[in-house]
Amino acid sequence: MQTIKSLGINEKNHLTMGGLDVARLAKEYGTPLYLMDEDIIRENCRIYKNAMDKYYGGNGLVLYASKAFSCLHMCRVVHEEGLGIDVVSGGELYTALKAGFPMEKVYFHGNNKTRQELEMAVENNVGRIVIDNRTELELLSEIAREHDKTIAVSFRIKPGIDAHTHEFIMTGQIDSKFGVALENGEAEEIISFAASLPNINVVGVHCHIGSQIFDIEPFLLTAEKMVNFIGDLKDKHGIEITELNLGGGYGIKYLEQDNPVSYDEYIKNVSRVVKEVSDKRKIKLPKIIMEPGRSIVGPAGITVYTVGNVKRIPDVRTYVSVDGGMCDNPRHIMYGANYEAVLVEKPAAAAQEVVTIAGKCCESGDILIRDIALPQIKTGDLLAVLVTGAYNYSMASNYNRIPRPPVVMIKGGKAKLVVKRESYDDIILNDI
Ligand SMILES: *Cc1c(COP(=O)(O)O)cnc(C)c1O
Fold this sequence. Notes:
With 432 residues, the protein is an alpha/beta fold. The chain is built from 12 helices and 21 strands.
């Protein structure tokens, strides 16, 4: 339970979140249910924002990576907290647009943006387009010309950093579908070509070396390489890069044993490297951008399920099946991710048996937690899986035509529905 700050236990011995009885919320909104603490989300935004202000003297911008969790309400919260936003698709851009997010603070990423998406970005004056490859650059230049606009761009660089994290979420090395490589000159070539294009304004370089990274070292190495690259562009090509975007990827505490470095500490150390290398290369300190996603929303969320059947297979395993699964949280089946969970109506009870929490989808791999020690558990109990605020709702699917759960945000001791539960009519909405 220490993985989520706002959890507590009330006089009924029930789990609370932001002071509210989770069992009561489950009754009111039904299960499965995503619960998120808006106060924690806001606090996390401020931790990043304050650290950036402190270490870069205001010459920095924090973008929330909205793929971690996006909905209209979330975009509004992020805007109110003064952050920018990063989007990777027309759908995420549309959400920000509809939420009234200021478009100059939107950064558009992605390794295969379509013409339609690029046109949407250009028409709506998105602040930055982060170019992934030459095809995209040429397409954007054409669209910019058609719209008679000059587009400010940044470039996704593979700095050649091998961060110690899961292979699927490791993106800094040369064998990656994202971006252009430093070590073979590809990055230099595309940027000098871009600088020669009339409707393109080269302002930044960007990298993102992976996700759920606990070490500080890969971030420092990356910062060093990127600032040196900015120095090379200036010395060799006379191109002045004014913006360095160092991406996201800061690890969070999913399990008690996880030990992330404080975000302030990361930013402090990275800023030291950025300043040192900028001095050495005699370049003006670039504006620094960072893009945390998981670390802003992950520790703010839990998912509440109702336990259905408990299948005890003697000497093998006990399967506890819940009313959701990989359809609302595919992280175990995708990454082998692990979670902690508590019984909502007896969160403090001592563990009595080791069980496996399974979902209700037609896949043997549809597991939420393998081998977790829990108190005696029975049909009808409410189970809360912890730290599900990031990459759960945003990765949810309608597999097996299961409607997606609602999202309820808690703020200042009050609960508010921000995403409705899908209905069966929603499921067939586009069927003809
Ligand atoms: C996914 C992603 C992020 C956010 O990563 P987290 O691990 O959620 O902090 C930031 N920038 C880019 C380009 C990304 O693809």
